[in-house]
Amino acid sequence: MRPVRKYHFFYLISAIFICSLSVFFIVTNAIASPSEKEVQSISQGQVLPDLKDTGPIVGNNVCLGCHGQPGLTMTLQNGDILDLYVNPDSYANSIHGQDGYACVQCHTNLGNYPHPLFTATDFRDATLHLTNLCNRCHSGEYNLTMDSVHFDKLAIGVREAAVCTDCHGSHDVHQWTDPETHNLLPAARLSIPATCSKCHNAIYQKYLTSVHGAALTEESNTDVPTCIDCHGVHNIGNPTTAAFRLKSPELCASCHTNPAIMDKYGISTNVLNTYVSDFHGTTVTLFEKQSPDAPTNKPVCYDCHGIHDISRVDNPQTGIEMQQNLLVRCKGCHPDATSNFPSAWMSHYIPSPEHYSLVYYVNLFYKFFIPLVLGAMVALVGLDVGHSIYIRTHRGKPRLKPKPAEVQPSELTETPTKPPQTEPNGEITNEQSEQSEQSEHDSEEASHE
Amino acid sequence: MTSQQKSISSSPNNRIKLVRTFPRFNVSQRWEHAVLLLCIAILLLTGLPQKYNTTLWSQAIISSPGRLNTIQQIHHITALVLSALVLYHLGKAIYLITRRKLPGDMLPTLQDIKDAWSMLLYLIYIKKQKPAFGKYNFEQKVTYWFLFFSIGIMIISGYVMWFPGTITRVLPGGVIPAAIMAHSTEAIVTAIFIVLWHFYHVHFERLNLSIFSGWLNEEDMHTYHSLEYNQLVRQPRSDQDPGDMQS
User: Fold this and answer.
1) Is B124 on the interface with A (CB under 8 A)?
2) Do residue B155 and residue B93 come from a single domain?
3) Is A413 a member of any domain?
4) pLDDT tier at A212, thresholds 50, 70, 90
5) Which of A345, A359, A417 sits opposite B178 (nearest CB)?
6) ω into residue A114 within 30 of 0, thus cis?
């Protein structure tokens, strides 16, 4: 057994030696690998990037090493020249740059340099591909856009339809909402119409002349609606549908019934209820509830006030407070309308002695007439019911006997005043006898029953 | 014009009792009433859902623009029928006036006010005797004239609403909303009046179907129209028309 023990000790010494040797190699290997990378980047003339210690992520400076050089371009399959330059300052100022996002967090398919070649058939194709990258983080907004009219157009092959980057930009994306309240920042409101105008310029030009657009662009008034306040943001619907039309009064009313906004400008907040209580609005509201997709020819707010060219109602040229301007709008549906016709619409007035006095007095008349008529009828019918119950319960009592004599004189005096055409004078005596007979008969009947 | 004899079995032992009946309304009047009844019923059924369009029952009826359109068309056609009826009624009255044959029983007189006053005194137990009435008592005259003017307002305001373009050629635009207001409110007054006043008097106070049958039995004649009854029974005159406008 002894010689075996000696060998054991030898094996143990050699095993410890081998282990420590392998550990040494592993550690030296681990130290050696970064130094190799460093060598690689230094060979490109760059310092090791570290914007925010992104760990294994390739730093932005690596990318900007090439893409930060103006003039870096590539030619796409159809010959379009794609500018590959990214302005480092512009990116650093963007919301993503400020929050320290790395290029490769969006451009995830690139890997290390040299990255795979980007391919696109043309310039728009490149945009349409790259815009999908937003979905990675902003899937909520991205999904909303799938309900939008832009996405619908895209789906049927209209490649010009707006995608994320068309409105938000790509490397220069800016913060548009307040981080805490998620409300739109005033600066963003000011820039929205210009953003939409990139495609919808004709409408933008109209908007600039409107009361809302002029206030926004000339006075930087952010109370006024921009495009998105009516059309929505990501899930922009088709504004030419019947559903949009029926819903539109509510859209306008969301601001125009809000005293917090309207009182500043002295604008009435009764515009919706006066519209709803009038014939046009009644029908529109009815269908809005009952069959929201039903087409209606009844006017909504914008049929009279205009859509993108909404002007002040007291504008002498275009304001519909001027009856001749309103008449133009009336004639859109009522071609035979004459100059009196526009005043058939109560112009959002609640009838009063000053405005629409006829309506006011008709209403006033019925306010008294209805209770009067109803009251009189209820009183008479009630008395009649009460009396007939009284007669039935007191039927056959002898005290009715002497009564006719009591009544008769008054009846007699009334008779001669009857108009001669119904009761000629010659009949009076006859009638007197009839009446006395009849009253006798009545009392007989009462006692009989 | 003479009274008819009708036999009605009035007792459980099937003893035949002869009931004397008196003509009250002629065929033309009965048809007028029937058409009027139908028209008013249809107009109310198609008009009230439009007035109370915010209520659930109304929205169940007017659920789509198509339905509303149908309802409005029915309303318009019925309105035309009612207008024709009113024109017929007025035309007949004018014709009878020119021939000096309008009975005039329905015309309001001073006596009606006195009758109403006497009736009121009777109802509040001051007088013990109901006033004696002629062919039409003051209640019936009130019914006729109330509906006469109601329908007048409804027809005029209805046409103003229906043809605003034509109306505003001659009248200021304000008459259109005024007509809408009047049409909508008068309809309610009329409906309530018919139900409360007319239905009470012809269904609950006593069942009076003379406007459908055309005749009234002797007992009712005697009880409710004693003046006329006495004239017909005691003093039959050749120049007295019992009420049918027919000459």
Assistant:
1) yes
2) no
3) no
4) very high
5) A359
6) yes
In a domain, B117, yes or no: no
CB contact under 8 A, A438 and B226: yes
A347: amino acid identity, one letter: S
Query: Quick one: tokens of A263?
Result: 């009182």
Q: Is A238 left (phi over 0), alpha (psi -120 to 50) or beta?
A: beta
Nearest to A369 by CA among B195, B193, B240: B193
Q: What is the pLDDT of residues A290-340, one digit of tens each?
A: 788 888 888 999 999 999 989 888 888 888 877 888 899 899 999 989 988
Cβ within 8 Å of A, B 78-107: 104-105
Structure tokens at B51: 């007035």
Neighbour-count burial of B118, counting CB atoms closer than 10 A to its CB (0-12 exposed, 13-18 middle, 19+ buried): buried
Phi then psi for residue A237, to 5 deg, are -85, 170
Give DSSP secondary structure letters for A115-142.
PPPP--SSHHHHHHHHGGGGGGT-HHHH
Do residues B92 and B153 both lie within one domain? no
For residue B178, the chain A residues in CB contact (below 8 A) are: 356, 358-359, 362
**Which residues of B are less than 8 Å from A334 in CB distance?**
164-165
Count of domains observed in chain B: 2
| Alpha carbon distance A175, A96 (integer Å) | 9
Measured in residues, chain A has a length of: 449
Q: Do A358 and B200 touch (CB under 8 A)?
A: no
Residue A73 lies in a domain: yes
Q: Which residues of B185-223 are buried (b: 16+ CB within 10 A; e: fewer)?
A: bbbbbbbebbebbbebbbeeeeebebbeebbbbbebbbb
Cβ atoms of residues B151 and B184 within 8 Å: no
Among residues B43, B70, B102, the one where a domain terminates is B102
Residue B42 lies in a domain: yes
Answer whether residue B56 is part of any domain: yes
Whether B235 is covered by a domain: the verdict is no
**Mean pLDDT score of chain B, rounded to an integer?**
84
How many domains does the structure of chain A reveal? 1
**What is the number of CB-based contacts under 8 A between chain A and chain B?**
165
For residues B224 and A38, which has the higher predicted lDDT (pLDDT)? B224
Closest Cα of chain B to A281: distance in Å?
12
Domain extent, residue A62, equals 41-174
Which residues constitute the domain of residue B189?
146-211
Interchain pair A418, B109: CB under 8 A: yes
CA proximity to A359, closest of B166, B48, B172, B55: B172
- Answering whether pTM is above 0.80, one says no
Query: Cβ contacts of residue A210 below 8 Å, gap of 6+?
Result: A306, A308, A309, A310, A311
A70 belongs to a structural domain? yes
Report yes or no on A154 lying in a domain. Answer: yes
Which token pair is B155? 């027809």
* CA pair distance A148, A296, nearest whole angstrom: 23
**What is the tens place of the pLDDT at every residue in A32-51?**
444 333 333 333 333 334 44
What pLDDT shows up at residue B77? Answer: 97
Tokens of A350: 């609640």
B14-B16-B17 Cα angle (round to 5): 125
